[in-house]
Amino acid sequence: MKFGVVVFPGSNCDQDLVDAISTGMQQEVVKLWHKDHDLQGCDFILLPGGFSYGDYLRSGAISRFSPIMQEVIQHANRGGYVMGICNGFQILTEAGLLPGALLRNINQKFICENVYIKPVTTNLLPTRLLDVNKAYKIPVAHGEGRYYADENTLKALQDNDQIMFEYCSNASDTGEIYNINGSLLNIAGVSNDKKNVFGMMPHPERAVDPELGNTDGRAIFESILELVNA
């Protein structure tokens, strides 16, 4: 299994992802420059967090048109795996690979802290090995993370088991009080209807190394590897 991390101008979590996968998970990973058209034979494409193109216009709106996104879209349409984290999630919604949109946080402030999320289903690749009754502590760092979609889209996400994570308490309780950014249905991550493209706002790559004091994010990468390497 070969992973590729796309690097856009303004990405600042690309190396975090590379380290989490190469050192933390002992997997092959390469960086892919946004101007290239070559995915270098990667099986799993990752779009990292950061502020691609300075987040001008809307977060992800410009990077969606980077040359390599043509290859990423084709890879996804062929059934290849793609995952976007934070800014990467925003890029995937702008590219139409994931439903919905990420709006400004309800409090109009940038949020940078550890939060808790719980898997809504175990029928998605990143949640396959997770416990739906457990809260996972994962860092967030975003100003535009409020998930929004129309009623029909939200219903489809629920009916098709596409909601990946929701914000919760450290005891895995859910409710508006634990909704850090105003996301509809407390959504912290979703998949596409084919369940090969995933997006989440929290940063699991920042919760892999024990030296950071938190390894809850490791379970998400282990879940991905368990099925892909089966």
Provide a descriptive summary of the structure in words.
The chain is an alpha/beta fold and 230 residues long. It has one domain: Rossmann fold (3-Layer(aba) Sandwich), CATH 3.40.50.880. It is 22% helix and 25% strand. It has five helices and eleven strands, in the order βαββαβαββββαβββα. Strands 2-1-3-4-11-10-9-6-7 form a nine-stranded mixed β-sheet, sandwiched between helices. A hairpin with a 5-residue loop joins strand 10 and strand 11. The protein is globular. The termini are close together.
Please give the CATH class: Alpha Beta
Helix content: 10-25%
Our measurement of the CA-to-CA distance between the termini, rounded to an integer number of angstroms, reads 11 Å
CATH architecture heading: 3-Layer(aba) Sandwich
InterPro entries: Class_I_gatase-like (IPR029062), PRibForGlyAmidine_synth_PurQ (IPR010075)
Subcellular location: Cytoplasm
Keywords: ATP-binding, Cytoplasm, Glutamine amidotransferase, Hydrolase, Ligase, Nucleotide-binding, Purine biosynthesis
Pfam family, one: GATase_5
